[in-house]
Amino acid sequence: MSLCLCSDPRGVRLVGQLSRCAGTLEMQHQGQWRPVVDIYKRWDLKSGSAVCQHLDCGSAVSVNTTYDSTSRPVWRVSVPCVKLTSGPRDCVRLEYSYTLSSTLDVVCSDLLPQPNISLSDGVFEVYQQGFRVLVGSDFTISCFVQPQYPGGSFQLISDTKKPLNLTLPAVNHSAHFLLSAMGHAHRGNYTCVYHADVYNHSFSSSQSPALYLTIGDLVTNLIIRVVLIVLALLIFDVCLFFFY
C-alpha cells in the first residue's frame, strides 16, 4: 500500500494518507504546492467540508492541526472565504505566506473506495442483463475492495422478494457469501457495502454496482431451447422450398 500524493488539477489536495480523501491539506498557488496552516484555529468542520466537497469526498469528519519539527513554506487561507466559495484555492492570502511547523489535517466522509461484486459457483448462464442461475442451486456472491485499510466488513444487500441483509468480516479485503437453495424469490439486484473503522471514526462506502440475478428452471430452459431449434429448422426448410 502506498500513500496518496495525487496532484489535483483543481489546486487542492490531501496528502500523506492511504486515501485521497484524507491527509494534510495542500494548495497550489503561483505554481507552488504548500501546506495550509491554521494560525488562529478558525478551521472547523464547515470549512473542512468545503475542501472535501471540492475534492468530491463528501463532508468533513475531522479537522485537526498537527505540529512537527519541520519548518517549511506554507499558505494561509481565509476561512470565511472558504465557507462562502466552492473554490478554496481562491482564498489563499499571499501576504500571509510564511514558514511554520504546523499543518492542517482533514478527514472526509467518502474515505472508503467503492467495492466490487461478482458471482461464482452455480452460474447457469451469463446474459446481457446479468446472470441466470438454476432453481435449487447454490451460489456464492463475492464482495471485494481495493486494498487500503486493514479489517472491516462487507454487507450484502438485495432488493429481492425476500430481501437479504448479510454481513461478513473482510478477509484479505474480500468476503464470500454462500447462498443456498435458489428460488424465484431470490431474483433481483444484489449490492455490496464496505464498512471500516479508521481514524477513530466508522466509515461506510458507497454501494457497489448492482449484480442482477434471475432464476431459471432446467426443464423450462431446455424446452425453450428445443422450441427455438425446431423453429429455426422449419424456417430453414421453408426457405429451401421457396428457393428451389
Automatic annotation (TrEMBL):
The keyword Lipid biosynthesis does not apply. The keyword Repeat applies. Coiled coil: none annotated. GO terms for cellular component: membrane. Gene3D superfamilies: Immunoglobulins, SRCR-like domain. Keywords: Disulfide bond, Immunoglobulin domain, Membrane, Repeat, Signal, Transmembrane, Transmembrane helix. Disulfide bonds join 81-91. SUPFAM superfamilies: Immunoglobulin, SRCR-like. Residues 12-109 form the SRCR domain. The chain crosses the membrane at residues 222-243. It comes from the Eukaryota. PANTHER family: SCAVENGER RECEPTOR DOMAIN-CONTAINING. This is SRCR domain-containing protein.
